[in-house]
Amino acid sequence: MKLTKDFVSSGESPRGPLLLPGLVFLAGGVICLISISQTMLELFGDGSVVTALFHLILVGTPGVILMYTGYRMPRSDISPQYYPRLIAWIVGGTGVMFGFIVLRDFHPGVTVEWTVGTQSIALLIGSIGGLSIGIQESKATTRTEELKERTHELKDREQHLERQNERLEEFANIVSHDLRNPLNVASGRLELAKDDCDSKHLSHVEDAHKRMEALISDLLTLAQQGQDPSDWSIIQLANLVENCWTNVQTEDATVNIETDSTIRTEETRLKQLFENLFRNSVEHGSSDVTITVGDLENGFYIEDDGPGIPPDERGAVFETGHTTSEQGTGLGLSIVKQVAESHKWEIQVTEGTYGGARFEVTNVEFTSG
């Protein structure tokens, strides 16, 4: 049987509380024996069958209930630490009923006959009523303790997230300053070297610098995604898409904007989502790929007419570092997913209308403008 942490941590012996279910079972058995004996006396004496059944039911019912309670207590979700209070409620409820009878007996003009029936009714009502109250109190106390523990866990989790955000901010500072500064120096030296000599190797160095810059930008974006959106605004989706398209090197690609939606979002992060999806289509499609942005019933989609994403690879496209392009950093679609999740949106990838990749963003909050 599982012991609660209260007994284990306090060093108290749980033996006493664990003996209580057996005592309750034994008490119920004694009451059942009394019930049976009273019934037999009525049947073999001068009593009637109705009176015998009356004794059997009224006295036997509390006994059976107490026996079942004693049997179920160790097998229920009630902690052993609450056993004494549960028994106290049973005894207290029975005592209240007998006390009520005594008070009635002392009342002027009222005579109470202390028959087996009277005592049986008091025992039945008092024990069942006390048991019911005790069980409900134990469950309520257990729920309260669970809520306290859950609240404590949430506070610990909140503190952990705060420390994590602090580390992310430190990481962002390192990325934006300590890495970009030497990269800028290297890029400047590269320009001087190109003036001094003409070598095919310098173009490869320049490509490496561009890739490093892209990695730094994506890493910085990922670090900033650790915080929930705070600067919410109402955005016309079509206007934002046009702005994002001008910020991306799209070669000969074209965009079709088929949306008139207005949504509530953090504009900076939503731009990151669209710009990364546009780059993804251009990098993985042909030079003249066509990208379409349109509305869904509860969101929007971005699709292209490129080669698409095989079904067995769609589950991995949002993983950090996953890329099939030499120019890709493997972080773009991870950023897209984090932007969606920070807005409490859902995103999935499927096949587009013309066989290309289609990204569907749902659970979006539309506005009237």
Automatic annotation (TrEMBL):
Pfam families, sorted: HATPase_c (PF02518), HisKA (PF00512), HisKA_4TM (PF16926)
Class in the EC hierarchy, top level: transferase
Annotated protein name in UniProt: histidine kinase
SMART domains, per database record: HATPase_c (SM00387), HisKA (SM00388)
PROSITE patterns, sorted: HIS_KIN
Domain of life, source organism: Archaea
GO molecular function: ATP binding; protein histidine kinase activity
Record-listed E.C. numbers: 2.7.13.3
PANTHER family: HISTIDINE KINASE 1 (PTHR43711:SF1), TWO-COMPONENT HISTIDINE KINASE (PTHR43711)
Keyword tags: ATP-binding, Coiled coil, Kinase, Membrane, Nucleotide-binding, Phosphoprotein, Transferase, Transmembrane, Transmembrane helix, Two-component regulatory system
CDD domains: bZIP (cd14686), HATPase (cd00075), HisKA (cd00082)
Keyword RNA-binding: no
GO biological process entries: phosphorelay signal transduction system
Transmembrane segment boundaries: 18-37, 49-70, 82-102, 114-135
Catalytic activity: ATP + protein L-histidine = ADP + protein N-phospho-L-histidine
Coiled coil region boundaries: 144-174
Every Histidine kinase domain range: 174-362
